Structures are given as structure tokens and as C-alpha cells.
């Protein structure tokens, strides 16, 4: 079993994964180390859990994009925005300064969690108190977008 494992985990595979980035190399290396330290089943389980964590992290980061030009901001949602993005969105919305202009573009997102919609609606209610001008760009054919007031 060890000989077969060594044939499957050639150094060239590690070099390829290193070139692809740490998000590819780390789950692979941790899986191999976990297999060697424990057993095959537990090692693969550890690798799957770590891979799912990396996937969630990459999806979490790329769901919301913000661009600033002077006192104007563009907050763009990408394909799917889940409840995992709620706290990050709250922080972004709280950081807009007084008398700024914000365009919230949700037109490209297929799914927006209702918790996220609630955060947006709360921001829209309170934006006038900070004199923030807010525009919403949405897709009227998406039922979830209609919930944004």
C-alpha cells in the first residue's frame, strides 16, 4: 500500500499543484499527511473537509465586489450571495462615508439569500440619515430582486 501511495504521490504532482496555488496544494498535502498519520478512511475524510472549507472560502470572497472612485461606490453582487456573506456585507455597508453615492448592482446575481436582502433593505432605510444617495440596479425578472425595496 505504501509503494502504491508513493507511486501516486510523485514529486511532479506536488510541483504542478504548487504552480496552481496554495488552495490546490494544501488540501492535497494535508490529505496525504493525514493518511500517513492515521488511516486511509480518516485521512480522506480530513482531506474532504479541508477541501470543502477552501471551496467555501473562495466562494465567500468572490460573491461581493466593491469599487471606489472618489466619493462614489459600486457594490456588485456576483452569481450567488448566501447568508455566509451577510456579516461581510454589513461591514461594507457600514463603511460608506456620509454624503457618498452608492450603486448596488444585484442584476448579475441569480440567488440572494433573504438575510442578505434584509441587510440591504435596512441599509436603504438608514442611508438617508447619513445622507448617502443609493441606487439599486436589479433584474426585474428575478423574484428575489423584487424583495429589495
- If you consult CATH, what is the topology of the largest domain? Transcription Regulator spoIIAA
| Spatial strand arrangement across the major sheet | 1-2-4-6
The CATH superfamily label of the largest domain reads STAS domain
Strand content: 15-25%
Give the CA-based shape. Answer: elongated
Major sheet attributes: 4 strands, mixed
Overall CATH architecture of the largest domain? 2-Layer Sandwich
| N-to-C order of helices and strands | HHHHEEEHEEHE
Under the CATH scheme, which class of the largest domain? Alpha Beta
Number of strands: 6
What layout of secondary structure does this protein have?
Layout: H1 2-8, H2 11-20, H3 22-37, H4 40-62, E1 64-69, E2 72-77, E3 80-81, H5 86-94, E4 101-105, E5 111-112, H6 114-127, E6 133-137
Parallel strand pairs: 2-4, 3-5, 4-6
Antiparallel strand pairs: 1-2
How would you explain this protein's 3D organization?
By secondary structure, the chain is an alpha/beta fold. The protein has two domains: 60 residues, no CATH class; 85 residues, STAS domain (Transcription Regulator spoIIAA, 2-Layer Sandwich). 53% of the residues lie in helices and 17% in strands. It contains six helices and six strands, in the order ααααβββαββαβ. Strands 1-2-4-6 form a four-stranded mixed sheet. The chain has a two-stranded parallel sheet with strand order 3-5. α2 runs antiparallel to α3 and α3 packs antiparallel against α4. The model has no long low-confidence stretch (mean pLDDT 84).
Amino acid at each position: 500500500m505504501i509503494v502504491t501511495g508513493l507511486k501516486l504521490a510523485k514529486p511532479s504532482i506536488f510541483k504542478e499543484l504548487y504552480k496552481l496555488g496554495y488552495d490546490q496544494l494544501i488540501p492535497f498535502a494535508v490529505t496525504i499527511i493525514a493518511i500517513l498519520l492515521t488511516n486511509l478512511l480518516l485521512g480522506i475524510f480530513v482531506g474532504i473537509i479541508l477541501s470543502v472549507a477552501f471551496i467555501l472560502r473562495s466562494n465567500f470572497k468572490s460573491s461581493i465586489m466593491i469599487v471606489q472612485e472618489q466619493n462614489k461606490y459600486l457594490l456588485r453582487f456576483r452569481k450567488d450571495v448566501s447568508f455566509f456573506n451577510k456579516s461581510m456585507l454589513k461591514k461594507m455597508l457600514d463603511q460608506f462615508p456620509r454624503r457618498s453615492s452608492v450603486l448596488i448592482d444585484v442584476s448579475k446575481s441569480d440567488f440572494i439569500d433573504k438575510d442578505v436582502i434584509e441587510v440591504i433593505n435596512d441599509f436603504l432605510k438608514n442611508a438617508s440619515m447619513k445622507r448617502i444617495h443609493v441606487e439599486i440596479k436589479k433584474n426585474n425578472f428575478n423574484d428575489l430582486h423584487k424583495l429589495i425595496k
